[in-house]
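Batch manifest, entry 17 of 40.
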Amino acid sequence: MALALALGLIIADHRFRHLDALRSGLMVLVYPLLYAANLPASLSGKVRARMATEAQLREANTALHRDNLLLQGRLQQFDALEAENRRLRDLLGSSFKIGDRVLVAEILGVDLNPYRHQVVIDKGSGSGVYVGQPVLDANAVMGQVIRVDPLTATVLLITDADHALPVRASRNGLRALASGTGTLNRLELPHLTNKADIQVGDQLFTSGLDGRFPVGYPVARVVEVRIEPGKPFATVIAEPNARLDRAREVLLVWTLPTTAAQASAGPGALPQPSQGAAPAQAAATQAATQAPTKARERP
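Output type: structure tokens
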């Protein structure tokens, strides 16, 4: 009877999703435990920050001031390039839509199952998070949301064996599929022939062809290209740019629907965050990004 009940619950949850409401309610109850488990690390960081000496604070302030000046100078160049890009696209008669809205979230927990690469963040449906939403860290794409609860959400990392996303090489625009391997620092590019123009060191960016991940965000760097005689496809291994095992904060991105012109533009210009995006845009994006990116949620 226990076995029959267990199988019935698995089928009801995986096939018909009848237990989503129950799971959301349980996550609300478990949230205080997740918060309490994360509290020591948060408090220790605050204590270390308060114990910093005056000399360290002055040195850090000087370094931040210098970096701020450098970033301000680069930002002026980016503004000029963006304006020029707009003018060129207007001349070509193509649309130019950028301006993603982002939200910072903190990682509350990590799935300890070695066969799953998932993390739990402290933002849920109450903050507008939706299933399929892209998740980034300060360096590159981390993954996408696969489950949303009122106060938390579960993120599937790009290295999970059940995840894949379309990418484009920055050197020559070669399109490929970056699949997770189950190893935290390893992605695989399957189905590339032995004659494909791919080299060690090539940077991979999101192509936007899946309609879910925005165009032009960095994903990984090719670290190995192995051609074996007698096999039609080469073995291509890439290393993710995101710090999947170290990041504590992530960025949730609300993207505009990707147009064909944007997808063909390549990774030349990264979408810039926009603070003025309306919440209605997130709902429209959610409806436009229901096509799967080959990420399958486990029962």
